[in-house]
Amino acid sequence: MFDTMTITKVGGALCAALLVFLLGSWAAEELYDIENHSEDHVSGYRVAVPEAGAEEVVEEETVPFEEVYAAADAGAGERLWRQCSACHALEDGRNGVGPYLAGVVDRPVASAAGFNYSDALASLGGEWTPEAISGFIENPREYAPGTAMSYGGMGDIEDRANLIAFLATQ
């Protein structure tokens, strides 16, 4: 069983495996070499770091919602409506998890017939003006603390304006 030919084959297989591992190690080192071998070769990207003590104040340019709403696209808002349609309906009187939104623009807050509003919205008062709707759907929990609406909010002002423009057509 252990004749010279078998021992030679096993030794050759071990040498071949060692050679494969050595060649693989060499190839990997050449591909992923992180050491710089010359002065003019630099790896990575240059990152500008501000000097200590020099703070730059960046002011965000805010566009009033009225201007964005004036240029809103109801067609784009219809595509955004799909997110809302999981809980709300556009048919008058058809409540779901949330109240129906037919005619919601300029309607009094918490006035959808047959819907049981949370205390947070019932005590809010006022009307659902485009600005009020925008504030609410931007961050419902901040606008009306204690609201039952579990939506996380819509951060983009153009998206909110487009959605409200679509709701205004309903």
From TrEMBL:
GO molecular function: electron transfer activity; heme binding; metal ion binding
Key words, A-Z: Heme, Iron, Metal-binding
Keyword Metal-binding: yes
All residue ranges annotated as the Cytochrome c domain in the record: 72-170
Keyword Flavoprotein: no
Identification of the protein by name: Cytochrome c family protein
Native source species: Gymnodinialimonas ceratoperidinii
